[in-house]
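RECORD TYPE: protein structure
NAME: DNA topoisomerase (ATP-hydrolyzing)
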Amino acid sequence: MEGKRTRFQSESQPQSVILLTKIKEFTRALLADLTNGRSPLILIDRFRSYCTLSNSNCFCASDLPCGKELLTLRRKSHAHRLAVMLRVMLIVQKLLQENKHSSKRDIYYTYPSVFLDQSVVDQAINDICILMQCSRHNLNVVSAGNGLIMGWIRFSEGERIFDCISSPNTAHPVPVHVEEVQDIISLAQYILVVEKESVFQRLANDQFCNANHCIVITGRGYPDIPTRRFLRLLVENLCLPAYCLVDCDPYGFDILTTYRFGSMQMAYDTKHLRVPEIQWLGAFPSDSERYFVPNQCLLPLTAEDKRKVEAMLLRCYLEREVPQWRLELQLILQRGVKFEIEALSVHALSFLSESYIPSKIEGKLIM
Ligand SMILES: [Zn+2]
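PREDICTED:
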């Protein structure tokens, strides 16, 4: 991992200097416009991780912007958006100058009466990243980190050592400063990503990692940025297959696509966040028959579930990159039922760790 360390250090040092220069240039240009009586025009690239064009003749996989937004002080909503952006930029400048880190939530609480809502701050951070062509962590804005990891891996994050190998069934938090992760040593054969913490805990209780040489990660629902960046780092560095286990419902499927294709909100940074190698281990709609899930464990889709599935079926990347996933998604709609991963444990508590997951991997029942 020596090469990695040098690369990170030489990249991260000038990055903050480059960003500080860009911020200065941006505000200077804005001031020049205002002092000369011109209304500033700010162009912000727009990105999307998918579209719903039926012919799939789109450029969503290209990582290029799909258009531009024009901000001008002549529109009141734009003026407010710009005012928020400048305030957030000021905070970011301070963070970079002092080499400190902050969360989106902390930033919101610096001026709650101005920002009014967290989503306003989130949008400003995204706008700044797009303008400065960087990732969120480059602004020293990081999330608290929700993810958990266990298994056959050891690594360090700065001074901190994460020695998961010494007790492979104990949960550790996913590191927040992923760019500082180095010295990764692993004896694992694959990485298993599970949607839910309850399933992660079930596997920990079953000593799953003792019986199976693997790494288990959970984002605890929709994965945050550190979890996705860390998973990507592991897949790239260790060249291990990665499997994803989610509920057989629209939310589980959406979480699966977030890992593989990225989210719409972070579309501008998808190229650093997605894990195209991730494969779907389950639960497939067809698993309910294959593994004899009783009818009482199958829940009817709600009207909202159906709307969500119908909307997801239109996403261009499904037809283009994983048509077999799309067929399974269609099957959820056709059957009109969903089930949780835990429903598979109806016959035995350790069914997931002793039968389901190993049989899926050995039998290559993944897609
Ligand atoms: Zn598209």
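COMMENT: The first helix runs from residue 2 to 35.
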